[in-house]
Design brief:
The complex is a heterodimer of chains A (about 675) and B (about 280). Chain A has about 675 residues and is of the alpha+beta class. Chain A is about 45% helix and about 25% strand. Chain A folds into 4 domains: about 110 residues, Beta-Lactamase, CATH 3.30.450; about 100 residues, PAS domain (Beta-Lactamase, 2-Layer Sandwich); about 160 residues, Alpha-Beta Plaits (2-Layer Sandwich), CATH 3.30.70.270; about 240 residues, Alpha-Beta Barrel (TIM Barrel). In chain A, strand 6 and strand 7 form a beta hairpin. Chain B is built from 17 helices and no strands.
Chain lengths: ~675, ~280
């Protein structure tokens, strides 16, 4: 507003001026006063209808009222601040009404060009709607304050940058300080110095709009740390700027719980030592291929099984705990002791050569030697220790641990309580074995494992009644590999399932082919060897599938299971055998007499035949017929047939027939042959 | 930077003052507006109403035209006071961090020549920053916004500067004769017809600063009024820190019991620790 705009220009007709004046004079919504200096004192000289209503004065009382009486808050010369000569002024002031009450108004004061008179427009600021709005805003503010104040969630409220305008009680008790110490930038001192940058980064992002969160440690007055997640939201106040609301979640206890869980997952509960998983991680983290300096000691307690079996598991556990404690006390700081499993421990050291590692192994041996009293008995723990120091040949951490495992087995094999450093030869052997496993896997996949068939004869009339399938592996470089080697290898390396299926399927295929070639002259039955590891719930299904695939009756197969395989888990073996027997497949116990089977148990097995082990047949030549005749007699009394294996001479054959063996099998009678040779042999035999 | 005299030489004010013991307030206010023409950017920022329409982008764009003022706002935003540790790299973000009222306050400081310490009473800024920090620190206890309290504290002594400009010698004598704040204000009213804070209030109201900043200035002498309590106690805090031989006035008496004396020592510590940094940031030194 300017001082010169109030005059009506000469172009405004007098009628208009009087019209405007009339409108202003009678308005009860517009409050207008005119003031001028009378006798040295500024006084009101005129007021409109609205003014008399607002102020409660009669028009006569209003005239000559000193301005200072109207605006009592302007004392002395301060009236000049309102009644300025050359420019308009606006002030929020209380005005005194006739009753003495004060009313808050905005006073807009415009001087006339002469500078001796002023027009004052009064606008009540405290209208009902404004009061209601303010009350609503106050109520909102109050609710918000109450909410945050009473909230158990630690809460920060900033109105500018990092400066806090408010913290609630929950935050104060979290950090152990009073609100006054935290307001402004005081709270920043509670953030761990290493985490403060992260917090500020988040605040920067949040002040720019959007939300954010960060993990930060808060340091309490007592020096303890709490780990928290701080979540930030922008708090924008129109016309003012941006701050943030921060809520804090104390995750210290949760992290501790998770750490405990992680510890439990990575540690052996009995000894508290790192377990195999953590050991693998630890070694992997430190393993740098092509370097040295990392050493592993693999310990296996000697005769631990004896302690467990004779003194009980509690004593065994006690021994393990004691050994763990001694190991921990013996290794250097920084070395890791892990429980690998059972009675096996691994020590990992860094920055050592072979001599250091062996010296440590010796120290361990000495530390373990003092007796431990278990259940009233003094037990002297001894361990076989395998030592491996990382060489350029170690490709990864696993190899290093595997090598020290091999070294431990060498130590064990050399006698108890020994320390063995893995030598090149042993490593080479182990590597060679690994390679052979890979090649065996390939041979099975490519069906390079072939079958030979050896006829089994009736002892009574010499006719062939069946053949036994015998797996053979002719290695392209190594030549023939003994079944004793590769079957054991397949069992160790999980390949036995595949190998067993291959033998089963190939045998059935060959039977079907013989049927097509020879008709009634084909072998009536084939015997297939089954490993102990195949005696599970899948075997029945595999046999059914193979028979169906090649269109054979179950009676065409006999399964041969070694005595020792049956005794590993007799009850589940029995269940599998019953399934096969119900199917119509006959069953034989191979190598009978070499195991330790309970004869009582034997009676309950659904078996058709016992195969007399070749060792007992060989004894016949020396005149020892006792075992062979006992086995044959036993079979007869249980109503089982017998096959004598390893018959190499006619004399043996005759003797066995005399002893009552039902069937004979051996090199002298017929050698193992390929499928086609077997066909030819059968064809010739029939003639 | 350019030093702009608060009152142009030869203006009527001086002769009026020399002639009369009373001080022509209107002439002083008029002189400020003359200066607005010489610092158009600052004047534009000051005149931007505290409206909801104003956003940081607009404010920053305007501010960018005055390099010195923009630099000060950046420096303030990165000062320890706001705790942002140098993370404020854009002017718009600086405006957001310090807040719009603070930007207006900085512009007001520039506009009224308060950034030229050579023409201010001794220790003027030391006092101002202490009042500002005291007010901001205590604001939550009085239900006030710290940002507004800070700005109020920074600008409250504007009236002192104006009186000092107009009557340097007379004001120095007055100040020396009246060691207490209340006594000085009474003397100001006697000599100039208006006390310094009242003068500040008039100026701020004229520029459209919100009532929350204007009202306390008018109520500073009325101990029964809760409106002036925060400013009274902030002035007391500043006096305790800056005035030698200051006889402390119990804060209970200044605040009608709203604040107890035992709340003051931590505030004194905080203000003492931050005052220099804030002063340097505001003055852009």
């Amino acid at each position: 507003m300017s001082a010169t705009t109030a005059t009506a220009g000469p172009l405004v007709p007098p009628e208009v001026v009087s019209s405007v004046f009339y409108g202003a004079a009678v308005s009860d919504t517009l409050v207008l006063l005119v003031a001028e200096v009378v006798g040295g004192t500024p006084r009101i000289t005129w007021g409109n209808e609205g003014a008399t209503q607002l102020l409660g004065y009669g028009l006569d009382d209003l005239r000559s009222l000193p301005v200072s009486s109207l605006v009592p808050s302007l004392r002395g010369a301060e009236v000049k601040l309102l009644l300025r000569r050359e420019r308009s002024a606006r002030m929020n002031l209380p005005v005194r009404t006739a009753s003495g009450a004060l009313v808050e108004v905005l006073v807009l004061c415009t001087p006339t060009p002469s500078g001796r008179m002023w027009t004052l427009r009064l606008v009540p600021v405290d209208s009902d709607s404004e009061r209601a709005l303010r009350a609503t805003a106050d109520a909102h503010e109050q609710r918000f304050t109450t909410l945050t104040e009473r909230s158990p969630v630690p809460t920060l409220l900033s109105e500018q940058g990092m400066r806090l305008a408010h913290v609630n009680d929950a935050f104060c008790s979290l950090v152990g300080l009073q609100a006054e110490q935290l307001l402004g930038t005081g709270w920043m001192a509670t953030v761990h110095p290493d985490d403060l940058d992260g917090v500020i980064e988040q605040v920067v992002a949040v002040l720019g709009g959007g939300d954010g969160e960060t993990t930060a440690r808060l340091v309490r007055t007592d020096g303890t740390e709490r780990t928290t997640v701080i979540r930030f939201s922008q708090l924008f106040t129109p016309g003012v700027g941006a701050g943030f609301v921060g809520t804090i979640e104390d995750i210290t206890d949760r992290l501790a719980f998770e750490a405990r869980l992680a510890h439990q997952a990575n540690h052996d509960p009995l000894t508290g030592l790192p377990n195999r998983t953590l050991l693998a991680e630890h070694v992997a983290e430190r393993f740098r291929p092509g370097t040295g300096g990392l050493a592993c000691l693999f310990l296996d307690l000697d005769d631990f099984k004896v302690v467990n079996d004779s003194l009980g598991h509690a004593a065994g556990d006690e021994l393990l705990v004691e050994v763990a404690a001694r190991l921990r006390a013996t290794v250097r700081p920084g070395d890791v002791v892990a429980r690998f499993g059972g009675d096996e421990f691994v020590v990992v050291c860094e920055g050592v050569d072979e001599d250091d590692a062996v010296a440590l192994a010796e120290r361990i041996g000495t530390a373990l030697a003092p007796p431990v009293r278990l259940g009233g008995v003094d037990v002297r723990p001894h361990a076989s220790v395998g030592v491996t120091v990382q060489t350029a040949e170690h490709g990864d951490a696993e190899e290093l641990i595997r090598d020290c495992d091999i070294a431990m087995y060498q130590a064990k094999a050399g006698g108890k309580g020994r320390i063995t450093v893995l030598d090149q030869q042993a490593r080479a052997q182990a590597r060679d074995k690994l390679r052979l496993v890979a090649e065996l896997r390939e041979a099975i996949e490519r069906r390079e494992i072939t079958l030979l068939y050896q006829p089994i004869f009736s002892a009574a009339d010499g006719t062939p009644v069946a053949v036994e399938s015998l797996a053979r592996w002719h290695h392209p470089l190594r030549g023939p590999i003994s079944p004793v080697v590769f079957v054991a290898l397949a069992e160790e390396s999980g390949l036995i399932g595949g190998l067993g299926l291959l033998v089963l399927d190939e045998t059935c295929r060959q039977l079907a082919q013989w049927d097509r070639l020879l008709g009634a002259g084909a072998p009536r039955r084939a015997n297939v060897n089954v490993s102990a590891l195949q005696l599970d719930e899948h075997l029945h299904g595999s046999v059914v599938a193979a028979l169906e695939r090649h269109g054979l009756h179950p009676s065409r197969l006999q399964m041969e299971i070694t005595e020792s395989a049956l005794m590993k888990d007799p009850s589940s073996a029995r269940a599998v055998l019953i399934q096969l027997r119900d199917l119509g497949v006959s069953l034989a116990i191979d190598d009978f007499g070499t195991g330790y089977s309970s004869l009582a148990y034997l009676r309950h097995l659904p078996v058709d035949c016992l195969k007399v082990d070749r060792s007992f047949v060989a004894e016949l030549a020396d005149g020892h017929t006792e075992i062979a005749s006992a086995v044959i007699a036993l079979a007869r009394s249980l109503d089982l047939s017998t096959v004598a294996e390893g018959v190499e001479t006619e004399e043996q054959a005759a003797r066995l027939a005399d002893l009552g063996a039902g069937f004979l099998q051996g090199f002298d009678l017929a050698r193992p042959m390929t499928g086609s040779r077997t066909a030819a042999w059968y064809a010739a035999h029939a003639r | 930077m350019t030093v702009t005299p608060l009152v142009p030489p030869g203006a009527a004010v001086r002769t009026t003052l020399a002639a009369a013991p009373s001080f022509d307030v209107e002439a002083v206010l008029a002189s400020i507006e003359t200066m607005a023409a010489q610092k158009p950017v600052a004047a534009q920022i000051v005149s931007l109403a505290n409206s909801d329409d104003i956003d940081a982008r607009i404010l920053a764009r305007t501010l960018a035209s005055d390099v010195a003022l923009a630099g000060r706002v950046m420096k303030l935003a990165n000062s320890a006071y706001f705790g942002m540790r140098g993370r404020v790299t854009s002017l718009q973000f600086a405006v957001t961090v310090v807040g719009f009222t603070t930007v207006r306050t900085m512009a007001t400081v520039a506009l009224t020549g308060l950034d030229d310490e050579s023409r201010l009473p001794e220790d003027f800024w030391r006092m101002s920053t202490c009042v500002a920090l005291g007010a901001a620190t205590l604001a939550p206890r009085f239900g006030e916004r710290p940002q507004d309290a800070l700005c109020l504290g920074l600008l409250a002594p504007l009236g002192v500067a104006l009186l000092h400009h107009g009557d340097a010698h007379g004001y120095a004598e007055l100040a020396a004769a009246e060691p207490t704040a209340a006594g000085r204000r009474a003397a100001e009213v006697r000599r100039y017809g208006v006390h310094a804070y009242r003068l500040t209030a008039v100026a701020l109201e004229h520029w459209g600063f919100p009532p929350s900043m204007v009202t306390p200035l008018g109520a500073v002498d009325d101990r029964s009024s809760p409106d002036g309590a925060l400013l009274r106690v902030a002035l007391e805090v500043a006096s305790r820190l800056t005035v030698e031989d200051h006889v402390p006035v119990p804060v209970e008496a200044l605040t009608a019991g709203q604040l107890r004396e035992d709340a003051v020592p931590p505030v004194l510590d905080r203000v003492r620790a931050e005052a220099d940094e804030l002063r340097l940031a505001v003055l852009g030194e």
